[in-house]
Amino acid sequence: MQGVWTPEQIRAAEAELFGEVPEPVVMRRAAYAVALHGSRLLAESCGTTSGRHVTLLVGGGNNGGDALWAGVYLRRRGAGVTAVLLSPDKAHPEGLAALRRAGGRVVEAEGPGADTAGIGAGAADAVQRADLVVDGIVGLAAHGGLRPVAAELVERVTVPIVSVDLPSGVDPITGAVDGPAVPAELTVTFGGRKPCHVLSGGAVRSGSVAVAGIGVDEHLPAPELYVLERADVGAYWPIPSPADDKYSQGVVGVAAGSATFPGAAVLAAGAAVQATSGMVRYAGPAADVVRSHWPEVVATGSVTDAGRVQSWAVGPGVGTGGSGREVMRYVLESGRPVCADADAITLLAEDSTLWDSRDPETPLVLTPHDGEFARLAGDVGADRVAAARDAAQRFDAVLLLKGNTTVIAAPDGRVLVNASAHAWPATAGSGDVLTGLIGALLASGMDPWLACGCAAHLHSAAAELAAFGGAGQAAPSAEGAAPIGASALLSAVPAAIREVRAAA
Fold first, then answer.
1. What is the DSSP letter of 170?
2. How far is residue 172 CA from its own chain's centroid?
3. What is the rounded CA–CA span in Å between residue 77 and residue 363?
4. Where in the chain is the domain with CATH 3.40.1190.20?
5. What CATH fold (topology level) applies to the domain 2-225?
6. Per residue in 57-102, pLDDT tens?
7. What is the 3-state secondary structure (H, E, C) of 423-485?
8. Which CATH superfamily is 230-503 part of?
9. Neighbours of 43 (CB within 10 A)
10. Which 3 state secondary structure label does DSSP give 157?
């Protein structure tokens, strides 16, 4: 499980480290890591570093200093290096002097011979002939999009970009992209991942993220956020042991769909079937349709006839009228862990008396998208982590806030993040599949926060497998993929489980 730390946490850890190691030494460690990863990218794209050209986009302060020192190390590997200074009077003096001593070239972004966009001739030439660009424009203290000259330079880049610590223009706390921002192929960050690497648009703009050790590890506090890796999900996913039977692995009850709209029932029940080797009981008016698709499901017409279960997955397609309200009341009174989605969330938002049906000790998972969240707890806003964390504490429930970056908050403040580079699960019925996956994991006895994290990760992995035709892990781009429906995602669940298990 990877940790994610806020800029404030990293800065505090660095301040402690500087009491042991001089700050210039730490900067050079960071810069060396940027140069090393930059050389690898050049080797992949050009076959070699020597004789290739690297352009540094250099802002003020230490972030620009890291880029300048990285340029020094790249010069030593035989690359030609040009630093484009966006704020010449604020450029890191030691880094600038070192680059010049190493034979690097220095130009100003708005220097002589400026074109109609205000870009100097030297800067325009440096970007045009670059084989690799290093983004050292702004650091972790910056907010908002790139300024016009920086944005214009970035727009002209046609080669891979390595960002120093974060893609410039991305909000370091929320990952929001509110203006022009760097689209990095690789971000080299120091000490640990930051929220901008895993949240919202920042997760996409960061590209691949490499964490470089600079010596702060022992000074870091507990992470602000966590990210499950593929191997973590594979290790946690429940697999039957020789001593297990269908009951010991968990019996999940699914209350979803209607006679008119049975699709939600088929998808949610099917996901529960595919997720574990336990047992699935379906209860609702779509029982005959569910049986026709999934003959292994024990299907009845009412939640009161479902029999014993270890968890409930409830909400998709049940409706928001009187019958849906009674279903919700029944499952909350059952004393079993509940995953509430879709109509169940709307019912809870509209009828405060339903909350009284829940035993305070009964685990509850809420899985809203932004619109459902707004009905339940108000607008999400830019800080999705804060919104999810506040709602989880308010409702004493695990809150899974859906999106391209899924945020999972526990009532005790723990937050898991699942970021995806693609949006393949953004299709009708996809959420019903996720509900079934979570319900099955809850029935197995897994901690609800962890169950949501594992289900979200696998859901995304299955969508990518389906989009790419079932071969291999996530691709770096959408090339060769095709849009999918929820049925295709559901069919890929077993293959996704095999993949995460193989990684464990």
1. S
2. 14
3. 57
4. 230-503
5. Rossmann fold (3.40.50)
6. 999 999 999 999 999 999 999 999 999 999 999 999 999 999 999 9
7. CCCCCCCHHHHHHHHHHHHHHCCCCHHHHHHHHHHHHHHHHHHHHCCCCCCCCCCCCCCCCCC
8. Ribokinase (3.40.1190.20)
9. 12
10. coil
